[in-house]
Amino acid sequence: MRKTKYIHISDLHLIDRGHLYGINPISRFKKALESIKKHHNNSDFVVITGDLSDKGSVKSYEILKEAIDSFPIPIHLILGNHDSRSNFLKVFPEYENSNKFIQYLKEYDDRVFIFLDTLAKKNTGGKLCKKRFKWLKDRLKENSSKPLYIFMHHNPIESGMYLFDDGGWGLEKRDKFWELLEKYENIKHISFGHIHQEIMASENHITLNCTKATVHQIAYFTSLKEEYLTIAEDPAYAIIEMKKKSTRVSWHKFLKDEEIFQE
Ligand SMILES: [Fe+2]
Known about the structure:
- This protein is an alpha/beta fold and 263 residues long.
- Helices cover 21% and strands 24% of the residues.
- The chain has helices at 25-39, 58-68, 85-91, 130-142, 174-181; strands at residues 4-9, 45-49, 75-78, 104-108, 111-115, 148-152, 187-192, 199-203, 206-210, 217-218, 230-231, 237-243, 246-252.
- β12 (237-243) and β13 form a beta hairpin.
- α1 runs parallel beside α2.
- Residues 11, 13, 51, 80, 82, 194, 196, 213 line the site of fe (ii) ion.
- Fe (ii) ion is lined by residues 11, 13, 51, 80, 82, 194, 196, 213.
């Protein structure tokens, strides 16, 4: 089995114009793409794990389309709580499928990658309704002999931050989700977004990572229960490399690309 490598970007929060917390989301995203092209052009694909748009406007998806249209590496998109499924499909009709959600499957080098849609309308928290859950169940059953990887926006594990855990912002019915996943020894890794931070974790036999947003980050350093602080830490993307028996996650803070010291 060949080595497979993907780049994990998350939470672009693209807007129609201007700045968000003093940051220009589209120029940040373009910087990330330039950096990936420069340093990781041997990647098999790029995944963006939701919150593609900040307000879900058609225009923001058009901006996204224009930015990724001629990118030399395949880019796969999923939705987050800030996205609008109907507006997204107006600009990316190729994502439309019979299950009515943006859920799909790709294969690279005999590895199976499942992309989930956890968007619950008008809700910050995430959901896999009966239909989406059954779709996942069926795909897991059909692909139980190959190494399998999952992408989703909402955190399916405790993040350590109150609002994303007991505050209802994470994936609802996490127990049911894990009850299903723990039956499949072939599931290797999950990459998710939503937290706007770097996280590495394991749950049962599966490893997981979250990556920082390309825009603002969320503070991990506060111990106050319901406090939510938006902070200006540098953005990053994650690099995930898989070999036969291993998965490695590293992060690159792409704004500092030009600051390379040489003897
Ligand atoms: Fe976000």
